Amino acid sequence: MSPTNEIKGRGVSRLTENTIIDGKKLEKELCQVKEQGFALDRGEHEKDVRCIATPIRNYQGKVIAAVSISGPAFRIDVDKQDNIKEALIEMSKKISKRLGWSKVIGK
How is domain 3-98 classified at the CATH fold level? Predict the structure, then answer.
């Protein structure tokens, strides 16, 4: 089911002014996440809280878990965000490799 249909079927509650409640915008965001290999929460769930997450894949390439870091926006600012993102991508690659996945993720 596409995010647009999922939102129409279930509805989405706005948790903050940044919550994505439009199905097409959510689809676009999910495509971007898949392409870039990481996800950012810019206060969509909780105001002034940011989160960066990267996927953990099994030997088949299926996403089975994620590694994430959340914190107050003032601690995870744009400057620190890139460093954290790169560290998480590296960690995800190492864990996924240990689980048998060999394709490069992210970037």
Answer: Beta-Lactamase (3.30.450)
